[in-house]
Amino acid sequence: xxxxxxxxxxxxxxxxxLGLGSVSCSLFRGAKGAPVAQPAASTGDASVDAAAGDRExxxxxxxxAHIERETRAADVQRDRVVRxxxxxxxxxxxxxxxxxxxxxxxxxxxxxxxxxxxxxTMAKLRFATRYHRKRVAAEGDMNFLRDTxxxxxxxxxxxGRWTRVGSLFVAEKTEENVNGEWVPxxxxxxxxxxxxxxxxxxxxxxxxxxxxx
Length: 213
Fold this sequence. Notes:
Layout: H1 4-31, H2 43-77, E1 81-84, E2 87-94, E3 103-108, E4 116-128, H3 135-140, E5 145-158, E6 161-178, E7 181-184, H4 202-211
Antiparallel strand pairs: 1-2, 2-4, 3-4, 4-5, 5-6, 6-7
């Protein structure tokens, strides 16, 4: 007959053995490559990525709209006279790569008022006549020069909206249409028609003779 004290020892021993068996099974399952729970993605990081993607999408939409608008207006602007005191000329532009042909670089800023700034770069063809002092002369001028280059438009993010703050066009080459073919313009391009350049008065001619200039 087993005493009460021996019974309690036996029960305690069985509990220890069962506990060791459970630990061994867990270790065995882990060794067989059981999936390990991965930490959940940070909610903050996901929100930041979503906000950045939204900003980029809005900017792309804005740039595409600009290119499409300029493309539609090209035929109308071809005959429009532009006033740049004291001159008149005709000017219009074409984006040869279409509404999808641009690159953008978005940079985050430390300031809260302008948290982001972006530069959008695209190929551009600018057609412009020479400058005239009289509007009627510019209206009759159909001899356009073609500048081929790259335009960079700068945008700032203000109050959640992209705002255009400036642009820069750098021409790589200038051509003129000769017998239906675009050929490079030799030498430095003179944008103002020589016959319409202001002539020096009596005092200017006298000073030129004295100085030899």
